[in-house]
Amino acid sequence: MTVDAHTTAPARGRSAAPPPAASAPSSPLRALGPNWYASVMGTAIIANAGAALSVHVPRPALLAVWTLSAAMLAVLLVARAAHWIHHTDQARAHLLDPAVAPFYGCLSMALLAVGGGALALEVPGGVALDWVLWSAGTAVGLAAAVAVPYLMVARHAIEPGTASPVWLLPVVAPMVSAALGPPLAAHLPEGQPRLTMLLGSFAMFGLSLLATLLILPVVFSRLTHYGPLPLALTPTLFLVLGPLGQSTTALGNLADAAPGDFGSLAVLYGVPVIGFALMWLALAVAMVVRAARRGMGFAMTWWAFTFPVGTCVTGSASLARHTGLDAFTWLSVALYAGLVAAWAAASVRTAGGLLSGALLGAPRR
User: How many beta carbons lie within 10 A of that of residue 20, not counting itself?
Assistant: First the structure.
C-alpha cells in the first residue's frame, strides 16, 4: 500500500530538496523511506483478516505470517531510526516532499496491524503487546493526520493534477485505531474506562471518515481531468478501498463491543459502503489491467494490493456476522483469496528487489 518514492520526482518549489552532490556515496539506508512500512501492513493483514473469517484458516499458518510481520516491523523500526540519525537531511527532505510525507501514516498502521494481530491470534502476552502498539500507533496516526495536511498546505508545493490516493494514508490511520480499539476495550474495567475507549474509537471513526470525504472528490477530479495515473502509481488506486473497508470493520467491531444502536448502524452503513468498495475495486482492477498492457512493471506500489483489500475482507466478515448472510461470508473468502495471491506476488518481487539491490539503490533524480 505504498508508492515507491523513486518513481516520483519531488515537486518543484518550496518542498523540493536540493540534489545530493554527484560524488556522494550511495547508501541503501539513505534510500529507506517510510513507504516500506506498507510491507508490514500488507503482511500483518494476512493474519488479521484470516482470523476474522468465519471459515477455518489454520492458526499455525496465520501465526507464522504474523510472526513474520512482527519481525519486519522490528527491523524497520531500527532501520528507520538509524536513517533519522545518520541521514537526517534526507529524513527531513522526506517530510517536505509531498510524494513521500503521506507515508508517515503507514508507520501508524504498521504498529496497529501487528498489535491487532497479536490480540486476534491470542499470542502469549498479546494483550500487553497490543496495548503498547495500539497506543503508539494511535499517537503517531493522530499526529500524522494533522501534521501531513498542515505540511501540504504550509510547506509543500502541490502542482495542479498531482492529487493522489496516497493522500489518504495519514487520514485513514485513525480509522485503523477506531477498528482495533473496541477489541481492546473488553480488557478495560466497565464504566468510564471502557466507555472512553469505545467513544474515543467512534470519534476517530468520524475524524477519518470526514477527512476521507474531503480527499476522495479531489482524487476523482484529478483522474477525470488529467487522465490515468502514471503506470507505476496505478496500483495506488487500491488505497481508496482502505477507508471503505476499515470504516465498515470499525463499526462492526464497535457493535460487537457495545451491542445496541451500533449493531443497526454497522449494517446500515456497512452494506452500501461495501457496495461502493466493490465498484471501486472493479474500476481499480480495470485500470491496473490497462497499465499492465502498457508495460507496468513491479514497484513498491504493488503493496497497495494488500492492506486495503484486507480491510474489505474484515469489513465483509463483520457484515456476515451481523446479518447472517452467506453472501458476505463468501465475499470475504473470495477477497481473502485475492489478498493472499497479491501478497505472495508483492512479497516475492520485493524480496527479489532487495536481493538484487534494485529497491534500495540511490534515488533517481
Answer: 16
In whole angstroms, what is the distance from residue 253 CA to residue 270 CA?
12
Residue 73 has pLDDT above 60, yes or no: yes
Work out the number of other CB atoms within 10 angstroms of the CB of residue 272.
11
Q: Exposure of 241 by Cβ count < 10 A (0-12 exposed, 13-18 middle, 19+ buried)?
A: buried
Provide the percentage of residues in the chain whose pLDDT is more than 90. 85
Contact partners, residue 33, CB within 8 Å, separation at least 6: 5, 94, 100, 103
Instruction: Tell me how far apart the alpha carbons of residues 54 and 37 are, in angstroms, rounded to a whole number.
Output: 28
This prediction has a pTM of 0.90
Phi, psi of 227 (to 5 degrees): 90, -175
**Cβ–Cβ under 8 Å, residues 183 and 253:** yes
pLDDT digits (tens, 9 = 90+) for 324-362: 999 999 999 999 999 999 999 999 999 999 998 888 864
Is the predicted pLDDT of residue 2 greater than 70, yes or no? no
- CA 316 to chain CA centroid, nearest Å: 17
